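[job 4471] stage=fold_predict status=RUNNING
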Amino acid sequence: MAVPEAEGAGAHDDQRLDRWLWFARLVKSRTQAADLVEQGKVRINRLRAAKPSQMVKVGDVLTIASHGKVRIVKVVSPGHRRGPPQEAQGLYEALGPERTAPGGHAT
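[job 4471] inference complete, writing structure tokens
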């Protein structure tokens, strides 16, 4: 009989999208993250995220349209808590500069 993988490295390589966005400090709250997903403003690997509970994993590329800007980030690590900004920046790699969304304006 196989024993389930123990809690630890590799045990949780995927994570809920809304939770990851919050841990990575790309949004101010999980509610805001869920709202962005429900409004169709988050894509995972070019496909529109279906729901806030959709799972993301290391290597996924997220496109996030928020506040008139578009950010493209690659998931480098799952989050374990909402830590300080330096810790949060370690969860992702920015792919290109932040751009102004079509029809949006920078504030």
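[job 4471] summary: The helical segments are 17-23, 30-38, 85-89.
[job 4471] exit 0
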